[in-house]
Amino acid sequence: MREYTEGLWAKFKETVWQPITKYTTKTSALFISMFTLFIGAILSMHFFNTNNILSSISFHNSQKNPKHLMNCTAYGPTRACPSNYSYTPFNPKLDRDHSLSPTCPEYFRWIYEDLKPWAYTGISREMVERAETMGLANFRLVILNGKAYVETYRHSFQSRDIFTLWGILQLLRRYPGRVPDLDLMFNCGDPPVVLSKKFSGPNATSPPPVFNYCKDETTLDIVFPDWSFWGWPEINIKPWVGLLKDLKEGNKRKRWIKREPYAYWKGNPSVSPNRQDLFKCRASKTQDWNARLYAQDWDHEVKNGYKQSNLAHQCTNRFKIYIEGAAWSVSHKYILSCDSMTLLVKPRYYDFFARGLIPRHHYWPIRNDDKCRSIKSAVDWGNSHEKEAQEIGKRGSKFIQEELKMEYVYDFMLHILNEYAKLLQYKPTIPPKATELCLEAMSCPANGLAKKFMLQSMVVSPATTSPCTISPPYSPSSLYSLFQRKANITNEVELLEKMYWQSQDKQKP
């Protein structure tokens, strides 16, 4: 209150009193009388609306002040989340004014499509719990009044579940009061798990809603950002905010025109037959497919301090290959961010942002059934069309830098959880075996890179800006037009490839 009145009087002296002193005594007396009435009205309004004003001041101050930081000393003896932890229940009024919010990237509109299987039925408690009885979930997450609870059914590979939950905690800290009460199941595996064919037909039951990192045309999983945005300690991949800066700097080390004129890929080929097939495109004494392919030995990297796996040091070729592993691959965003023209081997799966990419605009499509010839023709085309190849690479990088920045990752999480919560037909409750989630419970027991990455990715204070505004759902006609556009561009590229090989055949003796 004191700060408010001091500010009011300072404003009065600057804008009202100083101009008054320039007038005559008679004029000044008139102004003073009028001003007295004015101040009386203002103060009257102020005291009648004290609660509103104070709540407004409190809200804005909370945006500037740091949130609760970790207290591992207090957590250690009790292993309980601090009782003085401040939680903010869901307040739908916070989302009413979108006038100053930017429009979300286009790929946000796929949220509606992913939730469409439950658009008319809603989501019942039985549907949610059926995911666990079917063995489809690693954990169950409940959010009540801004507080998170988790029931773990089975641990995921490495620390996927831990860093996914850590990311959700950071969302609650970034947007206090904006995350609704909800109850969901999450699968942390590679392939999607909710097969649509099991839930089709006249007598079929509604599918269980399960969140996952990817899906394909035969599954109904709800796509969510993967754990690596908050770090992947097992292979020393930093949290996204810092890594994105490193990748941007790495791009500056070598101009596109000075880079190696070949297609580069480095990774683990043993995780899928698809990648093993790619390795048939390695250069030999008799054939060069313009591909430079390297197997990543992670055991060797761990022992040698990750000297050969720095992603920011791999932007050295004009072209980079993206190919799926056991399902979609985390490497998608890293490969696109290099300013190199991405050669994207036709994927089966897609993550939450991939459907916002356009062929020959953000990447160059590569055939999956004839990889080597497709890669060679793409590289030769790019080296003979340098300007357009550079532009494709830069647009891919720009997409990652601007439309996949961490702010939008959090906004996507917020929007999909809000839309999901609207479909719930029941009031979520805390499962009997669930435990409360807090910073201390997750980070205090951690050590090494896991602890380091948690500290680096921790949200220290709430966002000072509103989340982006999501565009309306696609209409059937607009969705068809989008599919048709992508298919037409891909067909054009395949025609160029066909013409390339016809010309190559003519040159043979």
Automatic annotation (TrEMBL):
<feature type="domain" description="Glycosyl transferase CAP10">
    <location>
        <begin position="178"/>
        <end position="427"/>
    </location>
</feature>
<dbReference type="Pfam" id="PF05686">
    <property type="entry name" value="Glyco_transf_90"/>
</dbReference>
<keyword id="KW-1133">Transmembrane helix</keyword>
<protein>
    <recommendedName>
        <fullName>Glycosyl transferase CAP10 domain-containing protein</fullName>
    </recommendedName>
</protein>
<keyword id="KW-0812">Transmembrane</keyword>
<dbReference type="InterPro" id="IPR006598">
    <property type="entry name" value="CAP10"/>
</dbReference>
<dbReference type="InterPro" id="IPR051091">
    <property type="entry name" value="O-Glucosyltr/Glycosyltrsf_90"/>
</dbReference>
<feature type="transmembrane region" description="Helical">
    <location>
        <begin position="29"/>
        <end position="48"/>
    </location>
</feature>
<keyword id="KW-0472">Membrane</keyword>
